[in-house]
Design goal:
Low-confidence stretches: none
Structural class: mainly alpha
Number of helices: 5
Largest sheet: none
Shape: elongated
Helix content: over 70%
Number of domains: 1
Oligomer: single chain
Order of helices and strands: HHHHH
Number of strands: 0
Radius of gyration: 16 Å
Length: 111
């Protein structure tokens, strides 16, 4: 199995695993909104630590994403930025790694 297939599996896992709990939250909280979701995630120091961790990982991903996408001529790379916020970082990052692996494979075949 190629590494790119593991990235694709992790993207699907990241989508399903995180959204399972997102759906659980919105089904269990009365009058749940996106604002209340983020407020509840910041209710204690554990949640704040997790949020800080995700923020740094997200910024690191964007710092890596931009020049790497330009270097490999990945089309529509900028879509990963809204996908990160609209879907989940756990989906966007491994999906980018899958697309990056495909771009590297394509470059190696053309050499």
């Amino acid at each position: 199995m190629k590494l790119k297939h593991i990235y694709l599996f992790l993207a699907v896992l990241g989508l399903c695993y995180t959204w399972y709990y997102n759906i659980q939250y919105f089904n269990s909280v009365e009058n749940a909104t996106l604002v209340s979701f983020f407020q509840d995630a910041q209710n204690n120091f554990a949640g704040k630590s997790f949020g800080a961790d995700l923020t740094v990982v997200c910024l690191t991903f964007f710092v890596f994403l931009t020049p790497e996408s330009i270097r490999l001529k990945i089309k529509y790379w900028w879509l990963f930025i809204p996908v990160t916020f609209l879907i989940t970082l756990a989906f966007a990052f491994p999906l980018f790694m899958y697309i990056r692996a495909n771009a590297i494979e394509k470059l190696q075949k053309n050499e």
